[in-house]
């Protein structure tokens, strides 16, 4: 007997879950997450719910049973008997609550980004064409410390709705009631960073290229500081900072270009993780690939 075609809603959900499992693997394979860090999506059929994996390393996510449904309004599990989840899920829930247009959130402690959350006075800037999405002014840094109340454990984790809501506000100008995030990425002082996207492909692209951009900027600073050959030339051109970020006009142009080409690397990244034995995805159409 021919297999029956699943109803469209089921197809939509299965496709979203398959992509979420793949995205966990992709972010691990590309060094955006290790045993820590997480990605979530808004439920494709119910915007009041979001999905992310339970308390486990992203590389080990393999089936829908590993994913937990949470209410957007308070990040409580839809199933009260759900297994343990991430304490930092409030990052995701509060961003989904604040911005209806955001459908994917990634939180990372990628080591290449850490210099820009622990040093003072050096902004992470878009230094090449793949990262125009980082914007013209350098990436904002959010500091959790002033938000702690007396007696609270200062472990830097965004583990309640109050802290999550404060982080979500950093994606717009201070005091703004803008409905859309003005930032794509926010750095978190002495912790890591958080990325938003209208869909999973956009957010994963931004997560990976934020990491690569940070690495490129650090290397540029290092090369500049360790090389004396061109010092006179650099000084003449006013390049005292040691690296050149994209100009405002270049950022504007590259932002548009980035949006247009997200899909190409996504297809490559999915193929990569589908063929690596570390990663399992029970929903993958290629799960029997040998
Ligand atoms: Zn964290």
UniProtKB/TrEMBL annotation:
A Pfam family recorded for this sequence: Aldolase_II
Domain of life the protein comes from: Eukaryota
Keywords from the named record: Lyase, Metal-binding
SUPFAM superfamilies tied to this protein: AraD/HMP-PK domain-like
Alphabetized GO MF terms: aldehyde-lyase activity; metal ion binding
Example of a GO biological process term: pentose catabolic process
Bilayer-crossing regions: none
GO cellular component: cytosol
Boundaries of every Class II aldolase/adducin N-terminal domain copy: 18-218
Record-given protein name: Class II aldolase/adducin N-terminal domain-containing protein
Species whose genome carries this gene: Cladophialophora chaetospira
Lineage: Eukaryota, Fungi, Dikarya, Ascomycota, Pezizomycotina
